[in-house]
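Board notes, transcribed. Complex of a protein with iron/sulfur cluster.
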Amino acid sequence: MARNAGFCFGVRRAVETAEKSAPAVTLGPIIHNPQVVESLEAIGVTSMNSPMQVPAGARVVIRSHGIGRAEQEALEAKGCEIIDATCPFVNRIHEMARRASEDGVPLIVIGEAEHPEVQGILGWTEGPAWAVMCEADIDALPPMERARVVAQTTMVEGRFRELCARLAERIGQLEVSATICTATRDRQQEVVDIAAKADVMLIIGGRQSSNSRKLYRLASDICRRTYFIETAAELDGIPIAPSDTIGITAGASTPDCIIKEVVARMNDIEKKVTPEENQELEVMSEEAIDKTIVQIRPGQIITGKVEMITDDEVCVNIGYKSDGIVKKSELSSTDVKEGDEIEVEVVKVNDGEGNVLLSQKNIINRKAWEEICAKEEAGEFVEGVGKEAVKGGLLADVEGIRTFIPASQLSLRYVEKIDEFVGQPMTLKIIEIDKAKKRIVSASSPPARPS
Ligand code: SF4
């Protein structure tokens, strides 16, 4: 069972946004999965093909693929309420497309020209722009000296590199941004690894789902018995022997319930069980799936991989069913890039929007607190810096932890202006520590002199 199977960060966010926004309209189905689209229709979220069909003043949820400038302006002109669930990965490419126009540089998108994501990207350029998907498309491009290249987020990385190499043969100055989403990259790498071990590969996904189709192509190159299924019902026609090793993955738009159903139906087929026994197996299958999902709790320290960086947060894959979010203010260093492995602490398993809230600063604070406690027990001094004059004393910072220094413990002389100690480094002796309330009272040692 692939670790990265089912909804990705962008799709989960779009589906949840649509659910919360009902009744609403989406431009095109919110994801390429007919079952999810049907369940959204049942709560009043309907899909329309173009802004022309959208009633004036309607609430419109933009799916993770995003839309072009012309569609956005058409909706605004109709007075629609636009709820933007464009995946931040895709938004970043829109920004690159806009900048290419501003800089007067032609844009080339490596991806499927008809795919809504590619259409949306092209829709943010005003200058020359093309979508290419194969060598023949590249050979048909007009001559140009310079171009910027981006990728549809679900491109297979190896193919993207091949096409970039072909472009480089024709265009002297090529600026390439490999905008393949890391969630896609990890999923594609995993399907290759699993297909190499499996006798039968099952790829679960909507037939219209581009990323699921690519998973199918990657797996079928390695495992001859690879099947692309949309629902568990399609398993009936697939020959599976009890001794077969079965690999399973699912596209980014496949809901968990369909994945669970597939695992349960396979048990049913293999073991030819009665409906009662099947029910029991279904529960077991759910447990098997749940076991593949990392369990987490608040306070736990885990290592995750940075998937995406936006203006205010960093999205981290922690191997859990939902992605983790670290607010930029909670990073110990802003020197972090996509693909980095970072240590984070779980603050909340669900932040109210289905994401896991993480912090790096908590880990640093905790380590600093443990060191301060150890020094206090050993009777050692700590080093701090005066931060803020407050009533009755000074607040100082010791390795990111605040400590209060009463005015009487600050200097041997009467201190008239406590704020003269702000910014001054000082050696401190901890005189009181409340571990439960995390409060520290210290004395300057030797008594400090105001700067
Ligand atoms: S596959 Fe990547 S780019 Fe596409 S919606 Fe999911 S997270 Fe966003």
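The mean pLDDT is 87. Residues 275-292 form the longest helix (18 residues).
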